[in-house]
């Protein structure tokens, strides 16, 4: 199946959330084979799990990352093209007084340069980047006819 979506940390971790969003779960089930994650999202997931105290919760998260995320979603790198796109966006945004978090720029760059739809439950974090298509899977989708 062809990749269509780049999912962010919130979306990929939804299945192991304390209160999973059923809409996100439904869309992951439907489109999981069309999804990838960014290398910086993989970092965020691992960092979050490894900084937890040794516990059953940590073991569950690490198992989920190894057995589900790593095997289900290609991990796309922040490469030269993404770095160029990100640098240009940072200059444009800083010129209008906006300074988005660096990691959000990296994720947006990977989505844009790979021509993928960026999926987030926090689309406001990415709305100021140009040349980027966004979807919020936390909101109910309208039925298509």
Shape: globular
The level-1 CATH class: Alpha Beta
* Structural class estimated from helices and strands: alpha/beta
For CATH, the homologous superfamily is named as 5'-nuclease
Q: Could you tell me the CATH topology label.
A: Rossmann fold
Rg computed from alpha carbons, rounded to a whole number of angstroms: 16 Å
Cα distance spanning the termini: 23 Å
List keywords for this structure.
145 residues, alpha/beta, Rossmann fold, 6 helices, 49% helix, globular
Describe the structure.
- With 145 residues, this protein is of the alpha/beta class.
- The chain is built from 6 helices and 5 strands, in the order E-H-H-E-H-H-E-H-H-E-E.
- The protein has one domain: 3-Layer(aba) Sandwich (Rossmann fold), CATH 3.40.50.1010.
- Helix 3 (39-50) packs antiparallel against helix 4 and helix 5 (80-95) crosses helix 6.
- The chain is globular.
Compact overview of the structure:
The protein is an alpha/beta fold.
SSE arrangement:
Layout: E1 5-7, H1 9-12, H2 22-31, E2 35-38, H3 39-50, H4 56-72, E3 75-76, H5 80-95, H6 102-113, E4 117-119, E5 134-135
Parallel strand pairs: 1-2, 1-4, 2-3, 4-5
């Amino acid at each position: 199946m062809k990749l269509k979506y780049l999912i962010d940390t919130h979306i990929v971790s939804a299945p192991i959330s304390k209160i999973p969003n059923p809409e996100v779960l439904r869309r992951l089930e439907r489109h999981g084979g069309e999804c990838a994650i960014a290398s910086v999202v993989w970092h965020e997931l691992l960092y979050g799990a490894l900084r937890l105290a040794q516990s059953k919760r940590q073991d569950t998260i690490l198992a989920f990352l190894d057995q589900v995320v790593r095997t289900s979603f290609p991990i796309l790198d922040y490469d030269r093209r993404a770095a160029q796109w990100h640098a240009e966006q940072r200059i444009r945004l800083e010129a209008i007084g906006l300074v988005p978090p660096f990691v959000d720029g990296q994720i947006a760059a990977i989505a844009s340069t790979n021509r993928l739809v960026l999926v987030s439950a926090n689309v406001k974090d990415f709305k100021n980047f140009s040349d980027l298509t966004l979807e919020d899977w936390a909101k109910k989708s309208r039925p298509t006819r």
